[in-house]
Amino acid sequence: MFPRDNEGKDKLNESVTSSKEQKSDRTENKAMSREELFSQDEEAKKIYEDIMSLRKSVEALKTDDMDILPDSGSSRQESKDIVLEDTEEIIAAKQAIIEQARRDAEAERIQREEALKREFKKKQAQQEILEAQKRAALIEEEAEKKRRRAAEAERRAKAISRKQALDAMEAEIQAKNKQLRENNTASESEATPEEIREFFDEDKPEDLMKGLEEAKKELLSAQQQQDAKIGTISQMTEKHTEKLAAEQQIKLTQQQELLKEEQAKLQDLLEAHKSERLAREEREKNERALREQRTKVEKLIKEEKAKAAREEKLAKAKKKRDEKIQRIEAKERHKREKREAAERAKLEKERLKQKSIADAELGGGVVNVKGIQINTKIKDTMSISLKDLLGVADRKERKESSEEKTQQMREEREKRREEAREAVELSMKQKMLDYENSPLGKRMKGLKTFCDNHKAPLLTLFSVFIMLLVGVAGVFNYCTAYEYSYNGKTLGLVKEKDEVLRITDLVQGALTEDKNVDVIIDAKDDIEFKRVSALGDVEIDNSEEVLKRLSYMGNLNVKAYGIYVNGKKVGAVESKEAAADVMQDIKDRYTSGREGAEIEEAVFIEKVDVKQSNTDLEDVLSEKEMVEKLCTSGETEKMHKVVAGETLADIAKLYSMTEEDILQENPNVDQKKLEVGSVLKIKQHAPLLTVKITELVTYEKQIEYEVEEKDDADLYEGYTETHQKGENGLSEITSRIVLVNGEEKEETPLVTTVKKEPVTEVIMVGTKEKPPTVGSGKYIWPLSGGYTLTSNFGSRWGRSHEGIDLGCPVGSNVLAADGGTVTYAGYSGAYGYLVIIDHQNGMETRYAHNSSLLVSKGDKVYQGQHIAESGNTGRSTGPHCHFEIRVNGVAKNPINYLP
Known about the structure:
Elements: H1 5-28, H2 34-40, H3 42-68, H4 73-188, H5 193-199, H6 206-347, H7 349-353, E1 365-369, E2 372-376, H8 386-390, H9 400-437, H10 439-453, H11 455-479, E3 480-486, E4 489-494, H12 498-515, E5 518-520, E6 527-533, H13 543-551, E7 557-565, E8 568-573, H14 576-589, E9 598-604, E10 608-616, H15 623-632, E11 634-641, H16 648-654, H17 659-665, E12 679-686, E13 691-703, E14 707-716, E15 720-724, E16 729-740, E17 743-756, E18 761-768, E19 788-791, E20 794-796, E21 799-801, E22 804-807, E23 813-815, E24 820-827, E25 833-838, E26 843-853, E27 860-861, E28 866-870, E29 880-887, E30 890-892
Parallel strand pairs: 14-18
Antiparallel strand pairs: 1-2, 3-4, 3-6, 5-7, 7-8, 7-10, 9-13, 11-12, 13-16, 15-18, 16-17, 19-22, 20-21, 22-29, 23-28, 24-25, 24-27, 25-26, 26-28, 26-29, 29-30
């Protein structure tokens, strides 16, 4: 039984009050201890353990770094900084976990309150339904009693009327008979001898005597006629009585038929009500199962997401740790290589001075910046790759096409270098010859002769001038620096342009190999220099810092392959082959996945183009990123109409969204109270590409068997029996299936082969008229089949045994001994599972110790109906059926009533 309304409201109020108190306690005690947090949230405990494991790994890394680099103070300092950064991250992660745990606890509390409210409303509704059903049953029972009383009163009135008519006819007949008897008595009275002598004189003639005899005969004849008339009247009376009795019997039969029809209608109503109740219970059961299944699926999805998040977090932490190790190793390697390069530079100083300016293509040569000419050069000894500086390990598996392309690019660069050197040498020789033959050359030659003749004074004067010039240049160089920028974006300051220009080719080649795209860095056009003051606290970049800034520029211009959908660019990938792989991955994602499926066609409904274009490096996506973008960057819009009882949380759950997302699209909606009939705008992510796939699929399909119903005169109406169980057949179907984004839109069967024919199920439907569901006064034995009378009515074991016991196996059919109404069906102490049937007129039967019950309280049963299965429940010494007959509540010996 459900609790009453007031009790439910009190419980709900207590629950809400307790939740509010808990919330206030949490507000006052915001500082939650670690043990309390872990006891409430196992997820937080796992994340904390992962963080502590990560911290131990970092500490171990620090120890390893100290062992590897004992003489490097800077490395030790960097290791300390790394530990400090990790410690701050751990603290932030702890705080985030605590905040998330608090939010989860609050959300869980709100969900519990809402669930409690919904459960209370549901129980209240069920209570109202039960009360309505009880009221309907009471009204129906009262109506049945009224119908019975009316029928009984009508029957009694008709019996009284018939009796009065018969009494009147009997009185009339008796009156007529009495009158006839009086007449006969008067006519038959004979004269005494004295009267005869007095009347007849002996002297009278003989003819008078004859006249007297004739008169006597006439009187006898009249009496016979009177008797005949009385007999006729008696016959007429009997016929009239029989006619009245027949008419009364016909009317009684009609009344019984009407009563049967009413009972049948009532039974149909009860059956319909019962069917509706069972259907409603089945629907509720299915809904509960569906909700439980949905809850389990959501829980699994949530667990998978949490697991993926943990794994991703650990992977990021591991990646970060590896990157730090690689950076430390790269720094040490770079320092070592720098020292070696400095030693080699001393030995090759003369060769470097005579290096041709033919390296202009690689960023060297004469650079004119605002009228100032600076001679720059390229060091051949700079052969350190970007991967060596950053400590990034070479990939073990490269595509053959990428290796060939890289080798071709290297050969082309070397070829261009040689051609440029030869062209510059020829050009310089020709210029020298032209200069010597020109007037200026001749004058310069005369000047040279003059200088040769006056070497000493000119040399002194020139030395003073050079010293002044060097001093001015030194001061100028010391007080100024070059601000270098790429495509208008300032990157930093350097002392010499050469420090930037000599690295551009290195960065270009390394990024080309690393990114698998053709990176373009034009040193002349893309890199700009501006001389600025270097006085004060100004940070000057060294070669390593210049390398980092150029390597991590996001707006580097590269040649990549853009993917266009309906003429609009979505993104770019590194190569045409990568774009083809992206398209194929998207098509594979939406195939049916059926075994043996043959793809006939896979096309995009939208227009898709792949074009090579110049793109920023940061806009080049990997294959996985591009597939994800094409599959999720679209958007679809739906309109949802609010129905009664629907909440914002229900709608968000229906569309796998958050309440905040719905409110963002519908700012005028009151989230606490949704208006029934209002329309909400729902926006969801959708694929940007629509894939249409045509497949040939061969699969097996069951052929559902048919059901044939046949009438059976041996079964009661409303009962069925399976004569032949149906079996499904099996067919093999080859179909052409059209899928749009994985959803089946069309199926065209091509070939169908029946491998197994179905077997028709034959059900026998009862046509035999049901016996009346009212008491007849005659009883049958309550068991069918084999049974034994194991205990009689009367005294037994010191107490009264108010029925008889019929020994039988558990599960034997228990039958209604007579028609009637079930007044009790349930478990009753020593009786076990008990059925009580009221047969009217104070008659009642009981069937105890059953294993299962097949009827409910209020059911109408007929004689011989299967109402239960025997068992051994309650106070019982063995499997049997305890049978009682009670008259006005007093137990009677059933043997006296059974055949």
